[in-house]
Amino acid sequence: MLNPEFGLPEIRAAAARIGASVERTPFLHSRTLSARYGAQVFIKFENLQFTASFKERGALNKLLTLSAAERQRGVIAMSAGNHAQGVAYHATRLGMRAVIVMPRGTPNVKVKAAAVHGARIVIEGENLAEASQHAHLLAEREGLVFIHPYDDPLIIAGQGTVALEMLEDVPDLDCLIVPVGGGGLIAGMATAAKALKPELRVFGVESRSYCAMYQRLKGLPVEVGGDTIAEGLAVRDVGETALSVVRGLVDEMLLVDEETIERAIVDLIEIEKTVAEGAGACGLAALIEHGARFAGQRIGIPLCGGNIDSRVLAAVLMRGLVRDGRLLRLRVAMPDISGSLAKAAGLIGEAGGNILEVQHERLFGRTSVKTPEVEFVVETRDREHGQMLISALRERGARVTLAEEAWR
User: Fold this and answer.
1) How far apart are CA 166 and CA 157, in angstroms?
2) Confidence at residue 238, expressed as pLDDT on a 0 to 100 scale
3) What is the structure's pLDDT at 407?
4) Where does 25-78 show beta strands of DSSP type E?
5) Measured CA angle at 154 (ends 148, 158), to 5 deg
6) Is there a contact between 282 and 229 (Cβ–Cβ < 8 Å)?
7) Which helix or strand (DSSP H or E) is residue 261 part of?
8) Please, what is the end-to-end C-alpha distance for the chain in angstroms?
9) What domains does the chain contain, in order, with CATH numbers?
10) Using an 8 Å Cβ cutoff, are 80 and 234 in contact?
11) Sheet holding 399-402, edge to edge
12) Residue 283, helix vs strand vs coil
């Protein structure tokens, strides 16, 4: 569907307008991911923008089109993080006052980053919808210009420059896999991609917890909510402009599980040596969960953001080790005699396990008081090595159980 307010000319104009102030990020072939999924996978590293997200493209395009009077009034935005940073950074750089309304629960790293870029931060609302209501009230009260994160033709045109660069670098792509929150990114990218290469297929990706675009397209009532690691996609009200474009230009919406998003974050760290936030990793998550349908194709994936709380990232990485069987919690029952603990630890070491934690349980164990339990958290090479380690312990007479099953 062609939108009269933005198309390829408007996206090209946005590229010319913002080109001197945003990064032309690398768009690189991933040999490891390509081999794993039987496709040719190319990743657009938008996490390397100065604010670590594609969002500054649309924000800057909008800011540069404001009149002198509007610049004098200042701007306001509601955002769970990345749009906030894009608006804050470029508004301050251009000499404008910026106010950002962020919902409670926004990751601290994003709140801090927006403040560092010079914006006044207001925390209000339990979600983006409530934050938006408060932002509109402040805009009216203080005479500020509201900068919408996704439902604005100028914002959408700015985001479309991502696809413009991808197809300039790799013209023979077969499809794009694009994360979807409010819909601004996929609307802009689909508009550019279909104009340049009509046969190219565009797939959108949402978390199953927040799949408002999928539900709107299916004519279903929008029911979203709950915790998600992809807070950048945690949108209830998708953009109406974006929705109209998605209806006409996007081939299919795909849904992914939270666990798959975590897997994608871990893979990007371990394989590509790059940090992605939950929303930024959703394109790869779709490839992980729906890989069969992309076999043999040339795939472009925007890694659209890297602003993840360090504590959350650490937990995701450790959970990944558990999930892959590289971190085990073993419960070993042993006689309550001198040297038993050292013997068990020695057996683990002989089998190649690396002991990270030890807890000697005398009071809350389930075995006889004469055979207390010891819990070992052990690092292994992989799941097979873990099973070999357990077998080696049992062969030497130790009673070993997994404290909990590694995630499958």
Assistant:
1) 15
2) 93
3) 38
4) 27-30, 40-45, 75-78
5) 100
6) no
7) helix 258-270
8) 42
9) 8-53+159-319 (3.40.50.1100), 55-146 (3.40.50.1100), 325-401 (3.30.70.260)
10) yes
11) 354-361, 373-379, 327-333, 399-402
12) helix
DSSP characters over 153-204? HHHHHHHHHHHHHHHHH-TT--EEEEE-SSSHHHHHHHHHHHHH-TT-EEEE
Run means of pLDDT, 10 residues per run, the chain, 408 residues? 75 97 98 97 97 96 97 91 91 94 81 85 86 92 94 96 98 98 96 97 97 96 91 90 96 97 96 96 97 96 94 92 88 74 84 86 59 83 88 82 57
Give pLDDT, residue 97: 94
Relative to beta strand 40-45, strand 298-303 is parallel
Rounded Cα distance, 260 and 135, in Å: 33
pLDDT score for 300: 98
Residue 178 has φ and ψ, to the nearest 5°, of -125, 125
Q: Residue 364 has what pLDDT?
A: 58
- 3-state SS, residue 98: strand
Q: How far apart are CA 324 and CA 78, in angstroms?
A: 38
Give yes or no for a contact between 190 and 223, defined as CB atoms under 8 angstroms apart. no
Element (H, E) at 82: helix 82-93
- For residue 97, give every residue at least 6 positions away whose Cβ sits within 8 Å of its Cβ, in sequence order, or none: 74, 75, 91, 120, 144
Calculate helix-pair angle for 153-169, 240-249, nearest 10 degrees: 40
Q: How far apart are alpha carbons 119 and 75 in whole angstroms?
A: 10
**What is the pLDDT, as a whole number, of residue 336?**
66
Say which residue the tokens 């404001």 belong to: 66
pLDDT of residue 1: 47
Distance CA 96, CA 264 (A): 37
Task: Report strand pairing: 145-146 vs 175-179.
Answer: unpaired
| Element spanning 102, H or E | strand 98-102
Backbone angles phi, psi at 196, to 5 degrees: -80, -35
**CB–CB of 224/209 below 8 Å?**
yes
Starting at the edge strand that comes first in sequence, how are the strands of the sheet with 298-303 ordered? Answer: 27-30, 40-45, 298-303, 175-179, 201-207, 252-256
At residue 89, the 3 state secondary structure works out as helix
Instruction: Find residue 77's DSSP bridge partners.
Output: 100
